[in-house]
Amino acid sequence: MSAPIEQARRWIHESERVLIGAGAGMSAAAGIDYGDTATFARLFPAFVRRGFRAQYQLIGHTGLTPAQHWGYWSTHVKHVAFSEDERVAYQALQGLVQDRDTFVLTSNVDRLFPRNGFDEARLFTPQGDYALLQCRKPCTRETWPTRPVIERCLTALDPVTQEVSDPEAIPRCPRCGGAVFMNVRIDAGFVEEPYVEQAQRFRQWLREAATARLLVIEIGAGFNTPSVVRWRMEQLVHQHPGARLVRINLSDPELPDALGKRAVALAMGAEQAIGLLRNGAKAA
Ligand SMILES: [Zn+2]
């Protein structure tokens, strides 16, 4: 067993509060990988015929008709945010920290934390949430539940073309009649209101953690949007006396010099790291 794993296990054991900062690498461990061509081919055969190979190519793509657009997004969001698939890595992580006072901050919009046993009241998703819809303009700061809208699209889905065959099923803003999209941070029109309360709860939890032994476990947070998770976790540990950082990252495990002996990196995938940490926790 390597020294970093042993150290991380000891820090988990010694911690009173655990902050989990999770990026795309955590969802990839649960099979949600926007570059995964095999899953894309299985879910989107009609889009493969249109020349696409992976989900990342559809992010921000504007060349689809509304029927194709909602055919794609309803299938994608159902798979990512509402499927009943078991997500072993999340459940293992939950098992690892279940007797600690835990808060989760994640850039992921897939709801995998609350769907796998993490407390919704201890969750901050500053990049948004696939479970909510907003007006694209936006003409209102309101949001609406996504699920009934995409279920209606999926009911009207042509199985061959993967287009929404009923124009009435294409969602529109109930106020202005314009386009809607999931409530995720894609541009300056992002409706932040659903996350204001989460942010307040997060700040309150951090204030209460000021006198606690705080451990930050950062998982799969790279340099795509580093200010959301990675840099924020580094900054928190830097400012919080006695706090420690466990960075789990296969491709970018480097640690800032300023954290010295208060940080350790596990240069491996999330699933492997959580499995190794969990085996130790069970034995302890
Ligand atoms: Zn509107």
Q: Helical segment tally?
A: 11
Query: Widest sheet: strand order?
Result: 3-2-1-7-8-9
Most strands sheet:
6 strands, parallel
Strand content: 15-25%
Keywords: Metal-binding, NAD, Transferase, Zinc
Domain Deacetylase sirtuin-type: 1-284
Binding site for Zn(2+): 135, 139, 173, 176
Protein name: NAD-dependent protein deacetylase of SIR2 family
Written description of the protein model:
Zn(2+) binds at residues 135, 139, 173, 176. Residues 1-284 form the Deacetylase sirtuin-type domain. This is NAD-dependent protein deacetylase of SIR2 family. The chain is of the alpha/beta class and 284 residues long. It has eleven helices and nine strands. The protein folds into two domains: 1-31 and 88-117 and 192-284, 3-Layer(aba) Sandwich (Rossmann fold), CATH 3.40.50; 34-86 and 135-180, no CATH class. The chain has helices at 3-14, 24-29, 37-43, 45-49, 66-81, 88-97, 112-115, 147-155, 196-208, 230-239, 270-283; strands at residues 17-22, 101-106, 123-124, 128-135, 144-145, 180-184, 214-219, 244-248, 263-266. The strands form two sheets. A six-stranded parallel β-sheet has the order 3-2-1-7-8-9, with helices on both faces. It has a three-stranded antiparallel β-sheet with strand order 5-4-6, covered by helices on one side. The longest helix has 16 residues, at 66-81. The model has no long low-confidence stretch (mean pLDDT 93). Residues 135, 137, 139-140, 173, 175-176, 178 line the site of zinc ion.
